[in-house]
Amino acid sequence: MEKMSRVTTALGGSTLTGRTMHCHLDAPANAISVCRDAAQVVVAGRSIFKIYAIEEEQFVEKLNLRVGRKPSLNLSCADVVWHQMDENLLATAATNGVVVTWNLGRPSRNKQDQLFTEHKRTVNKVCFHPTEAHVLLSGSQDGFMKCFDLRRKDSVSTFSGQSESVRDVQFSIRDYFTFASTFENGNVQLWDIRRPDRCERMFTAHNGPVFCCDWHPEDRGWLATGGRDKMVKVWDMTTHRAKEVHCVQTIASVARVKWRPECRHHLATCSMMVDHNIYVWDVRRPFVPAAMFEEHRDVTTGIAWRHPHDPSFLLSGSKDSTLCQHLFRDASQPVERANPEGLCYGLFGDLAFAAKESLVATESGRKPYTGDRRHPIFFKRKLDPAEPFSGLASSALSVFEMEPGSSSMSWFVDTAERYALAGRPLAELCDHNAKVARELGRNQVAQTWTMLRIIYCSPGLVPTTNLNHSVGKGSSCGLPLINSFNLKDMAPGLGSETRLDRSKGDARSDTVLLDSSTTLITNEDNEETEGSDVPADYLLGDVEGEDDELYLLDPEHAHSEEPEYVLPQEAFPLRHEIVDTPPGPEHLQDKADSPHVSGNEADAASLVPVDSSFSLISVSHALYDSRLPPDFFSALVCDMLRFYAEQGDVQMAVSVLIVLGERVRKDIDEQTQEHWYTSYIDLLQRFCLWNVSNQVVKLSTSRAISCLNQASTTLHVNCSHCKRPMSSRGWVCDRCHHCASMCAVCHHVVKGLFVWCQGCSHGGHLQHIMKWLEGSSHCPAGCGHLCEYS
């Protein structure tokens, strides 16, 4: 783990020398701080409070500040800070709400100096004033910040942030009286220590708790903040309103942020959980870290640059009970491993391709593909050597445009807006979506919806028109529609050996096998097959010939021009005498029992209809249930969904997932579903189909997707009387004690849907306001404002 590179830095009269090294601690560390001369570091935690000397080759323990026989909660530290003007002065924040100062110059073994017990809950942060030796600031979980004068026993001022807890406080390096504080509600406040009654400025910096902040050592107005939303934001506080100038997206919640000395755009961050690494970012390139330290094996809890004017050494403490010194030269640089090639499709089918400039330059003379009519447009500019990333690998971008008129995506928008995904029976949803797809010219999608209806709905309810349409080549080229047959009237084994042949002239013989795999269908009277509770009126069979079709068994729609089927005697092989012959129709039975007819003739006669009006076959008993269960087709449906997704039609895949719900969800892994959902939602949002996108999120079968519309929905409400932010979750303002949501018409509390005018902030019940505006356009509260409600 240790590396042999060594750096020596001359800083005025002192010299910093060292290398990447680490030492093992007795317990996990919560915070670290470096003394003014950069020669010592203090490590504090729940069970550790020690000072280490930073030597050239190793850390050496100098002092253990946890003294006494009985352990005290005052020594359980959440934060520690070393004064930058007095090298003997330290301060710690205890988990029991006590702020403790330590004087290393005391001759006794116990270095504890003063105790401040004014906070009621855990103190999260302590901070010394950069130029005043006796001013100490603390922020606590109780929502208060207190300023202490170390020459007095009590605090000199108390600041109320009107929030649940204060996570960080930092004095400004350039402004003598200003300090910043961050809160769990996502707000950042700027205070003047001379005015504890109200903050100078407050703004919402993050969607969620803000865990840390740090003032820039050179730029007077730059403040960096990090929060649970995995972002580091840089704010310019010199303007009238706080302006976000940079934003860095990390992969985990940001626990600590520190500006890098002598590097205006560099800052270091560490995570509160999951990610154990320390990153150094260039805020001008916010997506790839400039450097990364990977020495720790658990969460990093504290980071500090060794000297305020040396950018080479970074110190860190971790929950893995190690203290490390990182040499910037030894850090890994992810930007060197970044892929310079990329490929992306645009919203309307345009293709963008990025590749190394060296590859593009060497192949500039290559002839384009003649079959490709899409001409590339190169967006390429000459890099300025003075730019910060000019020495890194750069890419040239090629964009291929689609032909005019071929990139229309109107079908996607129309389909998304017209599809029905919920609120109706499954059969109606499939029929409606098939109709929409058919009207848009997407016949394959329409046929897929029709087949899903057949598979998962009762066949007896399938309209004949839908099934006829689902047959790709029409019913005229299929078998003629026949009546029904009775398996009881057939000899055993006849179903697997009998063929129905055409007897009239036809160049092509179409035959159908009646075997054990054939689904048997009822006649026009919808007689139910034995052993089945649902009527069936379709047949899926194995067809010998050129076409495999879905044939309807409906005699009312039979084509008169088609030849009839007859059963010639020679089509059946001679067999032994059947002892137990099922009873047949009476007129056939009588003929078979005649003594003048042989056994073989009786068998043949029993199969020849007497007249053309007689129903040849009628089903009263199936070999098994008349239809296969939907689970039988689950694998086929899953393959169909994957086919559409691979073809790029995630709209179809997601729509079927939502409509079928639990019928198919169990057969597709959660990660695949989430990928389909995110892709479809991204497309919907690109086309500004916000309502459809929200409906898809709401109806999604993936838990990770269902919670998307529950994020970033914080609503900040101001009191309509005093115009101050509502700090509590109730109906009454804490400042003016007025109800914030009173209806201006009925003067009652609005506990449901509330509508208000954005000009005067007055409003009320939706129905009351609508009725009021029918007769007057002035505000019902009497303020004289001409209200407009959109």
UniProtKB/TrEMBL annotation:
Main location (coarse class): membrane
WD repeats: from-to residues: 116-158, 203-245
Gene3D superfamilies membership: YVTN repeat-like/Quinoprotein amine dehydrogenase
Superkingdom of origin organism: Eukaryota
Pathway: Protein modification; protein ubiquitination
The keyword Kinase is annotated on this UniProt entry: no
A Gene Ontology biological process term: TORC1 signaling
Catalytic reactions of this protein: S-ubiquitinyl-[E2 ubiquitin-conjugating enzyme]-L-cysteine + [acceptor protein]-L-lysine = [E2 ubiquitin-conjugating enzyme]-L-cysteine + N(6)-ubiquitinyl-[acceptor protein]-L-lysine
An example molecular function term from Gene Ontology annotations: ubiquitin protein ligase activity
PANTHER family: GATOR COMPLEX PROTEIN WDR24
Protein name as it appears in the record: GATOR2 complex protein WDR24
Species name: Physeter macrocephalus (Sperm whale)
